[in-house]
Automatic annotation (TrEMBL):
<keyword id="KW-0963">Cytoplasm</keyword>
<dbReference type="Pfam" id="PF03481">
    <property type="entry name" value="Sua5_C"/>
</dbReference>
<feature type="binding site">
    <location>
        <position position="144"/>
    </location>
    <ligand>
        <name>ATP</name>
    </ligand>
</feature>
<feature type="binding site">
    <location>
        <position position="62"/>
    </location>
    <ligand>
        <name>ATP</name>
    </ligand>
</feature>
<feature type="binding site">
    <location>
        <position position="118"/>
    </location>
    <ligand>
        <name>ATP</name>
    </ligand>
</feature>
<dbReference type="InterPro" id="IPR017945">
    <property type="entry name" value="DHBP_synth_RibB-like_a/b_dom"/>
</dbReference>
<feature type="binding site">
    <location>
        <position position="152"/>
    </location>
    <ligand>
        <name>ATP</name>
    </ligand>
</feature>
<protein>
    <recommendedName>
        <fullName>Threonylcarbamoyl-AMP synthase</fullName>
        <ecNumber>2.7.7.87</ecNumber>
    </recommendedName>
</protein>
<dbReference type="GO" id="GO:0000049">
    <property type="term" value="F:tRNA binding"/>
</dbReference>
<dbReference type="InterPro" id="IPR005145">
    <property type="entry name" value="Sua5_C"/>
</dbReference>
<dbReference type="InterPro" id="IPR006070">
    <property type="entry name" value="Sua5-like_dom"/>
</dbReference>
<dbReference type="GO" id="GO:0005524">
    <property type="term" value="F:ATP binding"/>
</dbReference>
<feature type="binding site">
    <location>
        <position position="182"/>
    </location>
    <ligand>
        <name>L-threonine</name>
    </ligand>
</feature>
<dbReference type="InterPro" id="IPR038385">
    <property type="entry name" value="Sua5/YwlC_C"/>
</dbReference>
<feature type="binding site">
    <location>
        <position position="67"/>
    </location>
    <ligand>
        <name>L-threonine</name>
    </ligand>
</feature>
<dbReference type="GO" id="GO:0003725">
    <property type="term" value="F:double-stranded RNA binding"/>
</dbReference>
<comment type="function">
    <text>Required for the formation of a threonylcarbamoyl group on adenosine at position 37 (t(6)A37) in tRNAs that read codons beginning with adenine.</text>
</comment>
Amino acid sequence: MNQTKTLHLQPDANGIARAAALLAEGAQVAFPTETVYGLGADARNGQAVAGIYAAKGRPSFNPLIVHVPDVDAARALVEWTDTADRLASAFWPGALTLVLPLARGHGLSSLVTAGLETVAVRVPHHPTAQALLHAAQMPVAAPSANVSGRISPTTAQHVLDGLSGRIAAVLDDGPCPVGVESTILSLAGLPTLLRPGGLPAEAIEAALGTPVSRDAGDAITAPGQLASHYAPGAPVRLNATSAQAGEVLLGFGKVTGDMTLSASGDLAEAAATLFDALHRLDRTGKPIAVAPIPQTGLGAAINDRLKRAAAPR
Ligand code: TXA
Ligand code: MG
């Protein structure tokens, strides 16, 4: 693809206006959310969306999440339900993505949905994401702003490391506070967890008063959930309590390593640190060993990403 100079924009009024204008022109712009940096484009414009796939080198059958500023904007795109309403009241804006049937007259490019009858929608909480969505006045399709198959970006520098010269701009507002992608829940049938993420499934179950299914069935429901994903260049070994010869160790709690996800064993801190730690350890070129992480709360999302980072490829 053509080389362009990637603008490094500040999250002030000028930067937001510039980013919104670029989106209106059909360009691809990376922006921060509370989970990870997204690579945004006008979700109504097929060419703009195609530019996301081109920049990421992503297989085009993966549907994308559509970002909107508020519930009303989401309701223009999907068949809204009482369950969606309850979850949106509890968790939007925030790290929850809902998959719902497309509304009539939704106006989205079929590239965004990859031809499915459903679409994933999210209202992010991050002030810069909110400012951009309000300024742009369009639904913004955005996967994580990394080269396909690589570690998700939680800083603007991570974005530039992978996509500099391939996208129009990055809006830089520092590190993402949550650090793992949003939780994806399908409401197209019975509530089903498609991807554990920044909102623990336990919180969703508490709000609904019922358990959610964790059995997403076959790949059609979550085509982006390839076994090997979020992967550093070097091999990754899980549940390690010490480093073997040549390895670097990523610690947690009592397991101290060359770096730690959280010395105090705090899962929110570990989620926020995860991708930056993997980016840093990846740069050592050495195999990476990772301490055990409990499977509760945010631990489910952390272990999901680690399992994919460690999967054979
Ligand atoms: O935190 C996040 O969710 C970030 C930020 C930028 O919002 N976005 C993100 O997008 O992680 P991405 O493209 O890396 O992951 C989107 C996931 C994929 O696994 C995809 O298969 C799933 O959402 N998805 C999208 N639309 C879907 C649909 N209609 N049905 C089922 N899964 C869908
Ligand atoms: Mg991704």
